[in-house]
Amino acid sequence: MNTSHERRQRLVILGVAESDAHAVANHLIGMQLREHGFTVVNLGVCTPLSEFADAFDRHPGAEAVLIGSLNGHAHQDLGKLPELRAAGRLACPVVVGGNLSVGSHKKQSDRQRLYDLGVDHLLSDSDELVLLLDLLHAAGAARAPELQNG
Amino acid sequence: MADLNGLELDPQVAAELPDWHDILAYLREPGRPHAVEVLRAADAAGRPAVQPRCGVGGHDRMLALLRELEPAGPGILSLTIDSHTRLRRFDTARALLDGDPADLNGYPLVSHGWRRGRELAEAVAVPLEVRHGSPDGRDLFAVALAAGITSFEGGGIGYNLPYSKNVPLAHSLRAWQQVDALCGVLAESGVVVDRELFGTLTAVLVPPSVSLAVTLLEALAAVAEGVRCLSVAYPQGGEVHQDIAALRAVRSLARRYLGPEVEVFPVLHEFMGVFPRTPDYANLLILQGGLVARLGGATKVINKTVQEAYGIPDAAANAAGIRSAALGASDLLDFVRIDEARVAEELHWIEREVAELVEPVLAAGDLLTGIEAAFRSGRLDIPFSASIHARSLVVPRRDGDGAIRYADAGALPFSGAVLRRQADLLRGAENARPRSLVEAATADIHYFLEKERRSLPGTAHLPLTDDPRSRYR
Questions:
Q1: Is the minimum CB–CB distance between A22 and chain B shorter than 8 Å?
Q2: CATH superfamily entry for domain A4-126
Q3: Where are the beta strands (DSSP E) in chain A?
Q4: A34 and B CB contact within 8 Å
Q5: What is the reported pTM?
Q6: Which of B44, B41, B22, B21 is nearest to B33 (CA)?
Q7: Which of A17, A33, B254, B368 is the one with CA 20 to 30 A from B439?
Q8: Which domains are present in chain B?
Q9: Model confidence pLDDT, tens digit, residues A36-66
């Protein structure tokens, strides 16, 4: 596990999907990440995907874009992800967390639809977030020399 | 922009309205019920009037809903407005109304128009209040007045920061300034409009002094424009002594800051956070809200329902909620005594905290620009803001007794004495619950679920609602 001190240079972009105005979980996750030492650019509620892309353009060192979606409309709100990725934007892991479809019974197909759009990771519990970011970070660090050599 | 006695309006909305003399004549018709009269009577009786939230899209369904709720004995009934109308998307509201009105989460009064509004107001004997969440409620206010409705909720802070991502406070404060100014004009013509201020804010762990500072500043702005009747709403937090002290503080702060020209009525919004899942425990909390309202001297209580954990309630559940809240305030519970010394201590500190928040703003000169500047710097702040125009550096926590305290006061300009007391009160809670900040905040938000689990054997197996953290913003 990384320490808070080592995470200080690590930046993530956080926000809530475009059609979603749930602020409480967003603030709590922002607090959690800062408590663990991350620098958090929090775009807040009702954020269109294009604004996540703009934020990543401004902070190309960000190691992930974290999108909360609690109203079940993640698939609609993230519909432009393939287009943005094709244009070379949002070139970092996109992590979507929350309540991923309408209705109380979740189906594997709901998750697959989001993976098909290009979402890299889906989380249903915010407590898994720091671990995921550390794993991604470690994998990125291990890969970096190869990229330089390649 | 068209104009109704200083109230700037969308020209299309203005074109549909009757002229000012007709509006005024209708408002002054003898026998029309007005909220201010209900509030005065409840205050004199020492028992709060009860009011439900209620609003559906279709006109006939709205009429039926009001008629179904009236026999439960509410003092005032609500016209809860849909989200599109709140955001002045009148065309969208109109389109949904023409398609399937059930897609609207409230009554689109502007789209239905003032004639149908009058039909609603005349269908029941009790007055109506328009409840919404509009950062700019001017058009809605004009239609409400033309419909004969003289109770209107909202304010430039409380109806902006919890509801909208990016409406500048300068805009919402000035829109509500025009609403208040028209209330001043009406007061001079003998029509008293009850203006309710939404101290409930984001409804999640709101420290009393944050709620009371916001509504006091909105009240000062309203009184400056000539408003003569204010209902100041405070959200039940869950710790009885703190809630009673906060309700009493509404009156003591009004005496200190607002002067004798304005009537001020404290209102309790029954618990707005994550609600118990069993009808039994939910009903207990609704009943207790009625009792807390009476003990705190509230003039009005907005009831909850046993279906709260699951979405918008049906009429039968809402009627039962009205009755439960009224029973909680009824004489069968008049034997209940509280620890007055503990309430007095809470009241003292709440008044001091509000003074430390509000007085620097008042000292800065122009009130509205002072409010904007204070939110920009974080000297005024609310937790869990949906708006980017509040910094939300404030982190609330429950203490060992469940009272809401400041774990982090952000940039609020509190004195050392206030900050030390807050830290002392939370020290016990920190020791008892050594958890991460997020775990602790989540437990504090789920406060009544845990109490329900401990009080009712056999509820431990109940799943948490789909995503409880998502339910309130």
A1: yes
A2: Cobalamin-binding domain (3.40.50.280)
A3: 11-16, 39-42, 64-69, 94-98, 121-123
A4: no
A5: 0.92
A6: B41
A7: A17
A8: 1-473 (3.20.20.240)
A9: 999 999 999 999 999 999 999 999 999 999 9
